[in-house]
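Q: Sequence in, structure out?
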Amino acid sequence: MSYNSIAIDRENYKNYSKDFFYVYNRTDFLETLSHQTPKIHYLTIGDTKPRVVLFIAEYEDKIVAPYSAPFWNIEKIKKNLSIDSIDEIITVLAKYLDGLKKEIRLTLAPFFYDSAFLTQILNCFLRKGFSIEYADINHYLDINHISLNSYIDSLAPNARRNLRIANDLNLCFVKATTETEVREAYEIISVNREVKGYPLKLSFDQLNKTLTTIGGDVFLVSQKDSFIASAFVFNINEFNKQLIYWGDIPATSETKSMNFLAYKLIEYYKSKNIQFLDLGPSSENGVPNYGLSNFKESIGASVSLKPTLIKLV
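A: Exactly. Output:
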């Protein structure tokens, strides 16, 4: 029996989304974006029963997924889909999207989240007229396979030296537990971004609202009585976390607090049985940030692909 797409309403989608793998596809997250007003299409695709569920956002001149999130993916209802099933699903989805007669842009999840499925849907999309607009470099820490006993010895000499400098300064790592501490963590990121000339896309209220809604962690590093570095981490699902913002106060960079923070994040999430810590992209529109890439790799991060697909009208 051939597959077809069925439009569903928000409430039906919400029922499905409770079990989604990616928090960015869940209704709870989408509702934090109420300041944006695209038309949302909610779909299931399957034969006699749904095999996958997804959403896409329609603006005046284009179709995008995600919107205001790092990535998007199709959510599987049937966990083990054969390549012919995936091919038919993407055929049906491509036909639906073509019918909207607008430019389409889709940013897939980094491949380490679900390598086999993401590889297969990318293959199918490319055969349905989509092309890769660019592919970002996305780093991650494979927490599940890091041994704390051997981690430091596995680091590059420069990273080992930086971590030793930080440890000699008796820096302190704490999890933020009050709004005041969360705000202090945000101010550190704000200072870091301003000095380095990077945009800070989320206001404190937006970031705090998202943390409260989907869950996550905020951490601070202090030297004596002053906070000098921080990190904001979102819950992707039960087993995976994503680092949204991290940084130090540039004037204190000689403390090597970022190396200390990286080690403490690994130590903390190792104790929580987290599998992956997604460190986010180290490129913009596919162009690498060499310094950021080198730092992440110096702390033991692995590299994954995060492609953005496009199809013009």
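The two ends are 30 Å apart (CA to CA).
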